[in-house]
What does this fold into?
Amino acid sequence: MRTELKRIIWIALIISFAVIIRIVFEFAYDFFNESYTVSQFAYVILRFFLFGVVVLIWISIVANSDQTINKLPWLIVLALEPFVGLALFLSFGRSFRRSERYRGLPLLVPKQYLTKEPVTDMNRQGYMDIDSEITDIFKAGFNSTGHHPYLNDTKVEVLTNGSEKFPRLIEELHKAEKFILMQYYIMRTDNIGKAILSILREKAKEGVEVFLLYDAFGGTFLNKRFMNKLKDSGVKVIVNDPVYFGFFNTRINYRNHRKVTVIDGKVGFLGGLNLADEYNLGRFNDYGFFRDTHLVVEGNAVRSLTQLFFRDVYYNTDEFVSDTKYYPTHRVQSKGLVQILPSGPEFKHPPIRNVYVKMINNAKQSIKIMTPYIALDRELLTSLVIAAKSGVVVDIIIPGIPDKKSIYTVTNSFVEDLLEVGIRVYKYTPGFCHAKLLIIDDMMASCGTYNLDNRSAKINFEVTALLYLQGVDKLIQDFKNDIVESTEINYETWCKRGMIKRIYEGLLNLFSPLV
It folds into this structure.
């Protein structure tokens, strides 16, 4: 997609810069070798300097507590081509938790920004009345993130595709009386973008407090004149991690992938749909139909979305907003549990990934997954394999038409391992499926921005809603409809694909921890 262009350009520039340095290095050596008697000395000094830097980085990578599989790609690149490896590692491989900006913002530490969550006591009678294997999952989410599992006070509605999401969003925005908090990864000033942003502008003129936060990469193609008018109207526009100089700048890598809107602290939106025409119209270039899912949340769980939004404001502005006016009590009588789970590079142990592992391990009958990308780590893959071998029916829907061919190759590299244990994998025939869903035993589900890859687990800032009863029936029905429109991959046919394709998939699979 066009939103990846900025990252791709910086990667190309970094590699080109490294190659140029490599060429200059070789020419410098040749020059000394031909013209000076000290050439051998200069050669040894340069070689040992490079070798020393690579060894130090190797030691740093190996000493890191990450699993071996996550270290391997960097070790391979550094061994094969030190100059390019160093350039890429310094830009994309360094730890967020060791960065100056993380250490300089103490409220980024997981749970520290949570000032308005109620006291959580999973031994309360309401929780005890629910199957312990369900509440244990929510307990794991709470212990990992501090976000409260809201019981019987929050309603969730599933919005299927842009045709349901955007009319509902527009309706709720027009009702706003006090404040609007809006955040997107991809945002464009196309037809739907201008329509939504124009409402924000009008609301700001009416005196409604409006915050708008978007990712610098995802907003690369925004119309500057339009955005300036938005700011002039009183909208507080915040750009997440703009990158002005990409060399050795880790901001290129750690992006905010969340799509969240909060209105008056009573209604919230989250899910896979960005603010752009392809998400609204259900089509984009040659990707066929654009399938996605969003949620509208009404009730007390909205305060978790509000806190997460202001955490991202704090990250970008160093200003922490904790005014109680943003956290009204808004109980909506309902039945079930709703929990907002964030994930990001500030967590040492990826919370959404870990909760997914527990959900899969707890499944007794069925697991339903829809995801645009698959780059499974060892824990998730093992959990799925064990579930399938235990008799759990596992169905996974992936795109029929990819948006990124290289990432799709990584997805395909996992298909054979899944098929051979009896997991059913389907390709969504109408086009590209961007929804991010996990449903277990037709009782609880996760829906949000989280993809089944390492980027969502440990690199990007993500959010998902963990649901018990609320919204689950609609997610199940949508999944059944999507299965009907999908084509199941046949194991025997898949195993007959060409050797070149297998080799290519295998090579890219080595680098799946970086995807």
